[in-house]
Amino acid sequence: MKNGKRKVETPIQSQLREDDDVAQLFFLVSGENPTLPFSEIKAILDAEAIPHRVLEGLTQVLRIEASPSCIEHVKFRSAMTRICGMEVFNCGAELEEILENVRKAELSSVIGEGESFTVRISRVRRSTPQIAGTTLEKKIGEIIQKSVQETRVDLKTPAKTLFGVLTDDRFIFGLKAATLRHGEYLERGPRRKIFFHPAAMPVKLARCMVNLAQPREGDLVLDPFCGTGSFLVEAGLMGCRALGFDVKRRMVRGTLRNLSLYGIVPEGLAVADARLVPLSEASVGCIVTDPPYGTSATTLGMETRELFGNFLSNAGDAVEKGRLVCLAAPRTLGVQEVGERSGLKHLESHFIYIHHSLTREVAVFRRE
């Protein structure tokens, strides 16, 4: 206590303190966007009601305090996470400092006697070029063999992988808990689907946006501009119920074909104008959508800003109170102002450069 003031714990800190299973975790994420991958992880944890505390955000590495069980949720849902790890230590990116921390670490807590292991080092954006990754792997491996009895190095099929990341003049080291394979997103790419449109949302971004909307398993996810069904496919594969509308009958039929390709039976698909969504108030868990804009889009002869405003004013009421709307828009639209005028609370925005005339804004709102 300082100056007679007591430090007040947040509810999350209190929950974490009471949980014996809490650990420090780290996530190596993709570098395709500086903010989306971190927000996706945090949204997944919030959606699954997992108490957590963000410790630090480094370039492509997020450190948190949470139950290790959350890794399975991130592994199942995330599109932009590459490696999940349980942290043993973190330190400055100096060779001797790293090796000293390895010597001091309680390695027997992560590698059992007689277990095989390997050490792998990842370098983010040429960080710390003075340290050779292969040399560091070898030196750490030698220390582990001396510290834990009867361990052996196995480069092909190790029982455990110790994983270190060099980023921002820091070194994060721990036990690799999960590797996310993203080949499935290539397999679900726009041209692999039965029904294709050049304006279709990229699969990884579609999955990320669904996560940002924080649906839970069994929730009804609405896309009122369903197009080729990219968002509904990802929501369905995550165990959510899918509901879609589009003003074009051809798009609705195409969405149905794409959903069927992945064995997803929608809750409903209909030809409908998103400005007049045929739903009762608070009838859906969340909305994830990419309203039309650009030369290949159909805006029913309306200005894009007017279309977004009419859609948000109407469709926003269909979301349960306290739940989220995630949408994409051109940055020039000023969608934050449009959403707030429609009675929604703006929570965050992320920006994705597409080409010289389009930067896409991914915005998240909450219905108050």
Please explain how this structure is put together.
With 368 residues, this protein is an alpha/beta fold. It folds into two domains: 11-179, VC0802-like; 187-367, 3-Layer(aba) Sandwich (Rossmann fold), CATH 3.40.50. The chain has eleven helices and 15 strands. The chain has helices spanning 11-18, 36-47, 70-77, 95-104, 133-147, 183-187, 203-212, 230-237, 249-261, 304-315, 335-341, and strands at 23-29, 52-58, 61-66, 81-92, 116-123, 152-153, 160-167, 170-179, 220-223, 241-246, 268-271, 286-289, 324-330, 344-355, 358-367. Strands 2-3-1-4-8-7-5-6 form an eight-stranded mixed sheet. A seven-stranded mixed sheet has the order 11-10-9-12-13-15-14. Helix 2 (36-47) crosses helix 7, helix 4 packs parallel to helix 5 and helix 7 crosses helix 8 (230-237). The chain is elongated.
Strand content: 25-35%
The CATH top-level class label of the largest domain: Alpha Beta
Mean pLDDT: 90
Overall number of structural domains: 2
CATH superfamily of the largest domain: Vaccinia Virus protein VP39
Label the CATH architecture of the largest domain.
Answer: 3-Layer(aba) Sandwich
Tally of individual helices: 11
Dominant shape: elongated
Q: From the alpha-carbon coordinates, what is the Rg to the nearest angstrom?
A: 23 Å
Percentage of residues in helical conformation: 25-40%
Distance between termini?
37 Å
Q: Strand pairing plus helix content: what structural class?
A: alpha/beta
Largest sheet: 8 strands, mixed
- Find the CATH topology of the largest domain: Rossmann fold
Order of helices and strands: HEHEEHEHEHEEEHHEHEHEEHEHEE
Biggest β-sheet: strands ordered side by side in the sheet: 2-3-1-4-8-7-5-6
